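User: Small ask, check this?
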Amino acid sequence: MSAPVDPTPYNKDHPFHARLSESRLLSKPGSAKETRHFAVEITGSGLHYKAGDSLGVFPTNRPSEVADLLHHLGATGDEPVLLPKATEPITVREALTSRLALAGPTRKIVETLHAKATHPDEHAKLAGLLAPESKEVLNAFLEEREYIDLLVEFPSAKLTPQELVDHMRKLMPRLYSIASSPKLHPTDIHLTVAIVRYRTNQRERHGVCSTFLADRVQVGSTPTPVFVSHSHFGPPEDRSKDCIMIGPGTGIAPFRAFIQDRYADKATGRNWVFFGDQKRATDFLYEEEWAEWRAKGVLHRLDLAWSRDQLNKVYVQDRMRENAAELWSWIKGGGYVYVCGDAKRMAKDVDLALHAIVAGQGGFTQDQAADYVKLMKKEKRYQRDVY
């Protein structure tokens, strides 16, 4: 008897080459951010997803950055290099384009450059960075730089293509929270992506995958390697349960999917969304859609926080505190709380606000409130998708 054929042969190790069917700007002119909506066509792939899952995207590096590195290496790009675990060499151009991360240099490359630098000033600077007391200085130095900066700043330290690639990390896929429900969009996957562009060490930097999608992928023509990353994050299985969703910025993505999912399921539980960003006029992502869901009676509450529209910054956790009594009544009644977005600050602040609301409104001590929130997590009534 033959083994059953996997109906979905595509995964992280064998991605599906999808095409973008849509790329549109969500942020308006005047915004400090560039946030885009992408639709990825998955017809015929056998890929399946659910609200709460993520899409993995394998990017390539910017050709101009690869050319810059090759120029400062003094390489043509055709030189063969061997990557870890590989049995066959590939060209250094291919390695730098699609296999290796061009950012994130470590102490090891500084040690190699120090050993190879022939110019006294360069040698002295590298020695200073490697001194035992310079640990924090070295970390700050590397934080501001990519591999190209080091080749430019220490030209006397000549590296071979193989020596450079030996120091570089593997180029990893990026995971994006899916912003659509398969119940409404079975043949495509939507993403909400902040395009990363910034400047450090007098050089323009570009988020590898966000600018890959925004600048280098042509809608309808460029094959884009993708896979679905399944998650435990998802709307309540019990459709009668209320759903509180807190997602500022691109953290709104999975909640767009949740609302679509609950609408398709005719869920009877109420939906409450907290969304925030810098300015209402320029950063209100999917504004028309939220108005539509309100009009249809699918979205019962929408609380908005704009950090730059007034003198005092207002964030989603401030809106939570303002609505503490109502939030507690939803939670006490069995409501589910979901948080998506920045782990470092937002998710911590939201967690503190939730604990304070449970303690204050429930009449609990801090320890009792902590136990209550722990129980919510255990019952999957408090879930976070943070990064």
Observations:
- The radius of gyration is 24 Å.
- The domain at 243-386 is CATH 3.40.50.80 (Rossmann fold).
- DSSP finds 15 helices and 15 strands in the chain.
